[in-house]
Amino acid sequence: MAETKRQSTAGKVAIPKTTVDGDSILYKAVGARIKITCAPHNNVLEGTLFTTCNVTNAIAINTAPAPPNPSAPLQSQPGDYHIIPFAHIINFELIGPGERVPESAPGFDGALPSISKVDLDALKAREEQTIRDMKKKDAQKGKGVTKEAQEIFDTIARTLPTRWADAQIVVNDAVLIQPPYTLDSLKAPADKAQSLAHVRKILENFYQRKKGPATNRAPVATPIAPRKGG
Q1: What PANTHER family does the record tag this protein with (predicted)?
Q2: Helices (H) and strands (E) in the chain — how many of each?
Q3: Between vectors from CA 21 to CA 16 and to CA 22, what angle results, nearest 5°?
Q4: Core-most of 110, 139, 169, 172, by most CB within 10 Å?
């Protein structure tokens, strides 16, 4: 009986379009169990149509097995999602109705689990922030400088605003460290003596750590055993 019902609801539909509008069969099938054939290798996927998207021109299908209990909510299903571009869909077959809000119209609004609208403004802001962070990170890397110079920059940048100006390190827009980045390479205006002293201390500690801990212990004499017969 169940097989008869399954066959009666099935229908193969070709997808010649590259967009899905509100009247399309794919849009109305959101939340239903479908089987799709995909180019270029005629791969077949069966699962729940989670969403269709005209922004990315793709669908998302959850191929996790349907719960053994037909009345179990789709929220309890494990997720195994695949993103399929519209252009790769050769055809799809509706093999069973999905769980929907009672008396709801076809499409997203009645799908279960519910599908929230994507906040495109928030996504755009997140993208722009990521780009700013990447540019800031790139600006922290010296161009054509030695490994030690970069280590000095990173050490100072942990506690003070620091930037590169070609091969020079500018600290707090007050102190300049020129190659070869020694204590004698520090320069600052006369009214920035406090900043200069601060940076000098950081640089002194950096070189001290590179030398390793100081050893002031006196050498230990090795005892010599008494000679026999002496």
Answers
A1: LSM12 HOMOLOG
A2: 5, 10
A3: 135
A4: 169
Residues 60, 43: contact at Cβ < 8 Å? no
pLDDT digits (tens, 9 = 90+) for 72-100: 555 566 678 999 999 999 988 888 776 65
CA 162 to chain centre: 27
- The CB density around residue 9, as the number of other CB atoms within 10 Å, is 14
Q: At what angle do helices 193-211 and 147-157 cross, to 10 degrees?
A: 130
CATH 2.30.30.100 fits 22-110, yes or no: yes
Total residue count of the chain as it appears in this document:
230
The first and second tokens of residue 89, run together, are 């869909």
Domain parsing of the chain, residue ranges: 22-110, 121-211
* Beta bridge partners of residue 33, listed in sequence order: 48, 96
